[in-house]
Amino acid sequence: MHNGDLYSNLLHMWYSHIRLKIRTILADLLDDGILNEDGDNWKFQRQVSSHEFNTKSLRKFVEQVVDTELSDRLIPILSASVASSSVLDFQDILQRFGFDNICQITFRYYLDYLLPSLPEAKFVVAFDDAVQISGDRFRLPHPVWKLKRALGIGSERRLRAVVSEVGEFAKTIVRENKRDLSEAKALESVDLLSRFLSSGHTDEKFVTDIVISFILAGRDTTLAALTWFFWLLSQNPRVKEMVYTHIALCESMRLYPSVPTDSKQVANDDVLPDGTKVKKGMTVTYQVYAMGRMEEIWGADWAEYRPERWLEREERGAHKWKFVGRDTYSYPVFQAGPRICLGKEMAFLQMKRVVSAV
Predict the structure, then answer these.
(1) CB-based contacts of 18, cutoff 8 Å, min separation 6
(2) Structural domain span for residue 255
(3) Which of 102, 113, 181, 342 has the most CB atoms less than 10 A away?
(4) What residue stretch is flagged as signal peptide (predicted)?
(5) Per the confidence metrics, is the pTM higher than 0.90?
(6) In 115-153, alpha helices (H)
(7) CATH number at residue 191
């Protein structure tokens, strides 16, 4: 064996080991959900989910959920704050709004998290703790957190408790929906869980894992994008008169993407466009945050919040403009290719309705 072959094999083993570590780190919370899967299992979940995400009825349901939450909860809370000249933690308000929305869209359950009293919710606290502790594992040596988990001490003891609480909450919702379906009650297949169950995907573990993944994917990403968007508006008052909400959101997410970095595992030996060779099993990480600030992609004014960069004059009419999107590999805020975000249009729908209402 040549030294080059030996080196390649060692790299392959190393990167495969890294990918296994990442999956192990997140397995307690996400288990076999779509956010923690690869290969055939991921492909199957993607196909099942893609079918449901592309239905007009789901879009209509999402619109109804968002509009109700806006008119009944978010706008009254903001209006009361304005009337009393009180200060709100807008990020917290948007997080509550996002959690209520994603729980209704995913399994038609209303948390009552966005109320004037700003209550705590056991499920939200457990979910947040589970995400936080799972993320903290990345900063610890692998043997350390595994030993803590084996001994049931410290943060790992807490993780076991909150993951159990999140799982039981999700399983209870799944069982209630399955029971309604089996009793032939009028189970309206509007939320994602009901759609999965009605289409024959009734395995409890499968739907529970995928529901938890959807909650994680749909909650933090949208609220993070909205939080940065409103902050950028406050810093750039000139764009408040702009009617181009879509391009303003695109520009906001260019500077502050909800997922600032992401990794992919190489399926087969390949050569990247710049000539870099990658071997099967390697993990390739790309920096979405950095790409949104590269002069080669966005020009010398990359640091400026300028939504107009997404506009182009139409050939007919000097005063008519059209939106011109960037290719998803230059602007991978919603990923690209086969793994492009299923909820992209849903996210834009929610954000535009929130922005216009506020």
Answers:
(1) 283
(2) 3-357
(3) 102
(4) none
(5) no
(6) 122-136, 142-151
(7) 1.10.630.10
